[in-house]
Amino acid sequence: MTHPELVAEVERLKKKVEADEKDCWDKAGVIGTVAGGVLVPLALAVAGFYFSGVLSRQQITSSREIASDNLRLGQYQLAAGLMKSLSSPEPRERKQAISFVFIVLPELDARRLVNTLSQSDPDTAVRSSATNALSARLTELTAEAVGSDPEQSERAVGHLSNVWKDDPQFTKSLLDAAGQQKANPRAQANTVNLLNTLDSQKLKQHSNEVSQLIRRAPADNALFQHNARMLNQKLHARE
């Protein structure tokens, strides 16, 4: 992707952020109007416990909605600032901004943008920084996918399956992470499940490591054994 295409991609994301920000302000304005309408009758409701209780619950609900929209608005403002830095003519500013892309943007947009920078930014240092950021993020996700935290693992598996599966380093990174968690059956099971989503060619490039993983499937876990057999069939399938 050329540098003009990179600028176009950044502009597209900026417009998306600005549109979401406007929508958030509109919603905040509506909620503010509702909250204002609640406060007046609330002040007059001191004569009845029932009405006071109802209005108090309404006020709490509105306050939560306003807080939620304020949080979203802050996120959109961060994203807008990030887009501005990534399109800066100063390489140093672009390089610094790369560190925050995966924190601020959704996974798919973040990976796409950093990947574009790694290939087409006119500055060598920025391209190198983007490449390192991609590698670090993949390593982080594969480690989380085979980790002991179920919620974190589920989220990481989702990102890997939906966003990173086509990465050339995906298989190696996942196998390396599993190799560091050999005593953790959950880690091995998650790795087998993820590898089963790949085509056989990507598996055969790491046939030794995949075979070792299959042999680690515990005999007393029927589901793990079933998935391991499926993986073994895919590994040895003829093209």
Report what the structure shows.
With 239 residues, this protein is mostly helical. It has two domains: 3-87; 139-235. 81% of the residues lie in helices and 0% in strands. The chain is built from eleven helices and no strands. α1 packs antiparallel against α2, α5 (124-145) packs across α7 (170-179) and α7 (170-179) packs antiparallel against α8. The longest helix is centred in the first third of the chain and has 42 residues, at 3-44. It starts with a helix and ends with a helix. Mean pLDDT is 75; it is low at 24-52 and 66-74.
Contiguous helical run count: 11
What gross morphology would you assign? elongated
Query: Structural class, please?
Result: mainly alpha
Main beta sheet: strand number and arrangement? none
Q: Give the N-terminus to C-terminus distance in angstroms.
A: 32 Å
Taken in chain order, the helices and strands follow as HHHHHHHHHHH
Percent of residues in helical segments? over 70%
Question: How would you concisely characterize the structure shown here?
Answer:
With about 240 residues, the protein is mainly α. About 80% of the residues lie in helices and about 0% in strands. Helix 1 packs antiparallel against helix 2, helix 1 (about 5-45) runs antiparallel to helix 4 (about 105-120) and helix 10 (about 205-215) runs antiparallel to helix 11.
